């Protein structure tokens, strides 16, 4: 099963909200909404794996780290995300990642 | 392709949306759900994405539709409940503890007022409408300060002043509305507040007390005029604006009934009674000290509460802000390594939301020190 990890992204959240609205107006069933989300998981995983081809470097200081249920959660402070063209600085960033079964 | 870093988002997201929609189309049909619903889902989804501003604009068509819809809504909002909305809209920017509380009441009052058929002044740039006739006056300064004088049917007036040095001459409705013996007199005291009252959020003055200005009518907005005749306390408060208003509420309640019956008994702040002046001084001093706190401890129980609430609000807001700007990265990892306190991350296939914007990467390498 594809990771449900990406549901908590802008893309995923907006999809969930939209589905919720439709459920409230009873245009779709919750069951159907669940199916949609599963489809979304598959699609986003595939898209990320295939459609994205860019690289990022980042550097910062680690505030906390957690590894539980095969999921890493890091909180970094004063991080710089560096891509080829630009740089993004953030004071605090949370990184959530489940272990990838397939390593490329 | 240097722009590929962030710009591919729209294309990528759009392609993802398309894929998902297509894949679920079958599901929808299986369920017997109309294609229309699917389109609606798509539209909702894209709208939210656009609103989040994490991604660049979507289909221009949708954008245009959305903008048009937004405009319509804005217009409707203005027309329909201009007062209420303006207040509400204005309220957030002010973000002052006392105001918030006041504001909550205001919308109710506003509605109430509108019911009474009062015409609310449109948002005027910092000028009180000299409409002596209209019982309800609402002033909204372009600066975002809201002056509202609300007359509730119950005779309780709330005056909110965003308080900034704005010389507002308000008009006091000297009339006591015969309608219900309510203290129609509403004085808007928003004046720049003598003594430079701190930016206290709106001042609430119970209408009855406000009456006093009615007689004097057209007193300068400077707090004094606004003070309700009900009691010297009220007047004082008006000057001080926020804090005073609160007090007035406390004191106005008991005094209100009395005043209604005796409209002519308006107390004038302007040198009317010594006590009032004394109070004023005390209050002014007190206010100045507390400027930003906006609360006079001991003056009113409500006042004390407000500052507490305001503090809570502030903290809540901060928490929310922190949370909102919390940048999240969801991805998968190839390898996580640590040496003593040096961590190395090898990540892949991630979506980042940094400073509100979305980024995507196929690989990410990072270093961090713990």
From TrEMBL, chain A:
A GO CC term attached to the entry: transcription factor TFIIA complex
Residues covered by the Transcription initiation factor IIA gamma subunit N-terminal domain: 3-48
Pfam families: TFIIA_gamma_C, TFIIA_gamma_N
Keywords: Nucleus, Transcription, Transcription regulation
SUPFAM superfamilies, A to Z: Transcription factor IIA (TFIIA), alpha-helical domain (SSF47396), Transcription factor IIA (TFIIA), beta-barrel domain (SSF50784)
Domain named Transcription initiation factor IIA gamma subunit C-terminal: residues: 59-96
Cellular compartment(s): Nucleus
Subunit record text: TFIIA is a heterodimer of the large unprocessed subunit 1 and a small subunit gamma. It was originally believed to be a heterotrimer of an alpha, a beta and a gamma subunit. Interacts with NCOA6 general coactivator. TFIIA forms a complex with TBP.
Protein's name in the database: Transcription initiation factor IIA subunit 2
Chain's gene name: GTF2A2
UniProtKB/TrEMBL annotation, chain B:
Alphabetical UniProt keywords: Nucleus, Transcription, Transcription regulation
Tagged with keyword Transcription regulation: yes
Major subcellular site: nucleus
GO CC annotation: transcription factor TFIIA complex
CDD domains registered for this protein in UniProt: TFIIA_alpha_beta_like (cd07976)
Record's compositionally biased regions (Acidic residues): 276-323
Location of the protein in the cell: Nucleus
Superkingdom of the source species: Eukaryota
Pfam families: TFIIA
Compositionally biased residues, Low complexity: 248-264
UniProt-listed Gene3D superfamilies: 1.10.287.100, Transcription factor IIA (TFIIA), beta-barrel domain
Any one GO BP annotation for this protein: transcription initiation at RNA polymerase II promoter
InterPro entries attached to this UniProt entry: TFIIA_asu/bsu (IPR004855), TFIIA_b-brl (IPR009088)
Segments of this protein annotated with the region Disordered: 248-323
Family the UniProt entry places it in: Belongs to the TFIIA subunit 1 family.
PANTHER family in alphabetical order: TRANSCRIPTION INITIATION FACTOR IIA SUBUNIT 1
Name of this chain's protein: General transcription factor IIA, 1
Taxonomic source organism: Oncorhynchus kisutch (Coho salmon)
Phylogenetic placement of the source organism: Eukaryota, Metazoa, Chordata, Craniata, Vertebrata
